[in-house]
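Form 12-C: Joint structure prediction
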Amino acid sequence: MIAIPFQSRRKFLKNIGYISVGFSLLGACIGAEDPTIASRITYDGKLPGSIGRAKTVNAWIEILEDGNIRVLSGKVELGQGIRTAIQQVAAEELDMDLDKIQVHLAETGLTPNEGYTGASASIQNSAMSVRYAAAKARQELLLLASKKLNTPINDLLLFNGIVKSKLGNKSLTFAEILEGEQIDREVSIPVPIKNKAEHRYVGKSVPRTDIGEMVRGQAGYIQNLRFPGMVHARVVRPPGYESKLLTLDENGLMAEVPGVIKTVVKGSFVGVITEREHQAIKAEQYLKNHSEWTTSVPFPEKENLFTHIKEIANNPETVRNEGNVEAAIKGVETIKAKYTKPYIKHASLGPACGLAMFDGEVLHIWSHSQGIYPLREALATMLYMEAEKIHITAVPGAGCFGHSTADDAATDAALLALEYPNTHIRVQWSRHDEHSWDPYGPAMIVELEASLDENNKINSWKAEVWTDSHSTRPNKDAGTVLAARYLETPFTMKSRGYLGGGHRNADPYYKIPNMKLNAHYYEGPFRVSSLRSLGSFTNIFAVESLMDSLAEKAGQNPLDFRLRHLEDGRAIAVIHKVKELTASQNIAVDQGVGYAFMRYKNTDAYIAMAAKVAVDKVTGNIELIKMWAAVDVGEVINMDGITNQIEGGMIQAASWTLKEQVTFNTNEITGTDYLKYPILRFSEIPLVEVAIINRPNEAAYGVGEVSMPPTAAAIANAIYKACGKRVFDLPITPEKISDS
Amino acid sequence: MIMPTYHLNINGSQKRVETEADTPLLYVLRDYLELNGPTYGCGLSQCGSCMVLVNGSATTSCMLPVSSVDESEITTLEGLVSDNGKLHAVQQAFVKEQAAQCGYCLNGMVMTTISLLNKNPSPDDLEIRNALEGNLCRCGSHTRIIKAVKIAAKSL
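Section 2 - Result
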C-alpha cells in the first residue's frame, strides 16, 4: 500500500492525479468472503449545529488514494478519547475496518470551525456531523459506482474502501470511483444511516489506540513537539494582575545565564528566548530578580470573600419564574440554606505550552487550545493581522477540563515569534504560572428556600445564585488572551463572557409548581473562566443537599422522595439503578451512604450517584470509601470511553469537594503548586463503580461533565448520614465536621 | 561559554551531553536526547510525571542535576520496549486496562509500578496505593491504574 504522508487538502487535490492507486487492498479481498452488510434506515431528524458551518461531505470526510479515509474534526483531543469515538462512527457508516480511518483534529483552514471543544458537546456536534457526512458519502459513492459499473445500487456492496458487484465480477476502489475528486455534496436529510441494532463498533468498548503510544513515550502532546532549530522561551509574568513594569535590568543576564538569544520587552510583557529549555527557566528567574513592578490592586481578605461578592454583585436577574413563589412561601414554614464554593483550579498536570514560527508572511502556531478558530480571532485583533495570515494547528495536550492557559501560552509564543522570525519558538509555562494565572472556576454562593405542601411534596422553590462569568474564552476581544493585557497599548477584556453557565441546574429537574431562580452576577477579584460543568457543580451541591434536608423533613427515604418529584422515565431509571447498585451495602455506625441526582443542563444526560463515607467524629477525618454512578447519556458511542469519563469525573470532583480551594492573601495568590493547592492522592481515592444505561435510539449526549455536579452533594449527604453534620461550605474538610 | 561534558547511561547506551552542571536530568532527556517518556508536570518533585528508573528505582528527574547522575543506569519508557517492539509487562497492563485519559502522568505511574514490583512482586491494594502516593493524576484514572498494577504483578 502506498504510504501518503500528511499533506494539506489543497495539495492533496492538486497532487492526486499523480498518485497511482494501490492494488494491495483489492488483492487482499480476492478469495475472501464478502461481509454481510448491515441494513440502513432513513434518518430525517435534525442535523447537528456544526453541519451548518461546514455543509459539504468533504468538509468532514476525505477519501484517500490508499483506500483509507481521513475524517476532519474541529475538535481537540485532551484525553477524553474523542478521536476514537469519531473513528468508530465513521467506520460504522462506511463499513470499514477501524484502522482505515484516520482522524485529523482541529487545524485552521483545514478542518471545520467547530468553535470550542467544551460543554460536553463533541459527541453531539462533531461525532454526529461525521455520522451523517459519512452516511452521505456512502450514498454518493454507491450512486457514482452504480453509474460507472453500470450495475443497480441494490446489486452493489460497499465495504472497506471498495464497491463491488454482488456477483463479484466488477469492483472499484473509492479513489477510482472519485477519480481525484472529493464529495462536495451537501450533507442533507433524509440520509440512510446504519440500523443501530446492527452496529459493529458504536456502543462497544473500542480501546483507544493512543494509550499504546503513551506507554511507549510516543504520545503526541504539544510538549513533545520539536522542530529543527527550535529555541525555547519563557515569559516573566508580573507579580500581580494589574502590575506594570517599571524597570528591567538585563545587563548581567548574558554573563549569568548561557544560551540567551534575546529578551523581548513589549510594555509590561517580558519574554526571554534561549537555546535550551532549562536556560529559559534560569533567564526568567534572573529577569524576575532584576525587575521592578508596580503593586497590583489588593485582593479582599479571604475570610470576607463571600461578603465581598455580595457587596459587588449586580442587581439580580430573574432567569426562571413559574407559579408564584412569593405567594406559596408566605406564611408557611420553609427550609432555607446557604451554600458556598471557593475558587478552584483546573490544575492540569501538564502546564501550558505553545509553539510559534513567523515565516515573514504567515504566523504558524501550534496549541492545545480548545478553540483554535476563536483563538485566531483574538490574535488577529491583538497583532493587527489578517486572520488568514495566522495558521493554528491543534495539538493534543494534558487534560485541562475547561478553558485554562493553553491559549495564553500560544499567545506568548506568537508575540515572541514575531520578534524572532523564521525560527520555531517553544514556550513552556511553569507550574507556578499555571497555578497563579489559570482562569479559575469562580467562587459561588447559592441560597435556597423551599416549602412542602400538606402531602409532603415540594410546593415552592426559590434559588438565588451569586456567580461570576463561567467563560472568558478567546474571541475577537483580544483582552481574552492574557499577554494582550500587558502590551504597550494594552487590551482590556471588554465582554464579561458567558454568564448563563453560572445558574445552570440551579432550577431542579423535579416537578415543583412554584419555582423562581434569580442570578446575581459579580465581577470578582480573580481571573475566571470555564471549569468542567460550570455553575452546575455548586448548584447541584446546593440543590441535592437541600433535597436530602427536605426528604428528612418529610420523613422519607431520600431516593423515594426524589422519585416522587420526577415524571421522566429516564430520570426514574437512573435512580432505580443506583439504588440497585448500593442495595447490598453494609453500613457501619460511623458510615453513611448519600445520594444525588441530576439531569445535566436539565436537557442532557441523566445521572444518579451514591457515595459511601466513614467519618471519625472526633478528628473529623473523612474516608471516602466508594462512589457509584448510574448514567444515561442516550446512545452510547464508546462504552468504556464513557465509563472512563464518569469514573475520572467522580474522582476529580471528589478532589474538589474534599480538598480544593484557591488560597490567597491581600497581596497574592498563595496556592502556587501541588503542595499549597493539594489534590487527591492515591491513599484518598475511593473505589468507583459505573452502570450505563444504553439507549441506542435516543440522541447521544456528551458525558465529560456529567459526573462532576452530583459528587459534592452525594458526599455531603453521606457525611450527614454518617455523623449528623451537614456542611454547606466547600471544601468539606475535617475541621468543619470535627466535634472538638 | 564552555560546557562540561557528561557521559550518561541511558536505556542501555552511552550518551554524551554537553550542558551546564545544574541542568536537571529531565531537561537532558527531553531537550538534548529528545526522549518523550518523562514529562514536565511541576519541576518540584511533587507530581511524579518526570520519573525515570535510576538503577531500577523510580526517581523524579526534574530536580536531579545531571552532574549527580554519574554512572547510574537510567531507563525511560522508551527503554522499556524490547528491540522487537514488545512492550514491558507493566506497559501492556496499562494498555489492557485502558488506564489513562490524557496519559500525561502515565510515565510516572509505569515507572513507580516497575520500581514497586522490583521490590515487592505481589503488592496488596494498600501497598500499591502507598507506592503511588507521590504520583498525581488529574483525570482520575487512579482506580484503573491500581487494576493495571495488579494485572502486571500477575503477569511478571
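Section 3 - Comments
The helical segments of chain B are 25-32, 77-80, 89-96, 106-119, 125-131, 142-155. The beta strands of chain B are 5-10, 13-18, 51-54, 57-60, 73-75.
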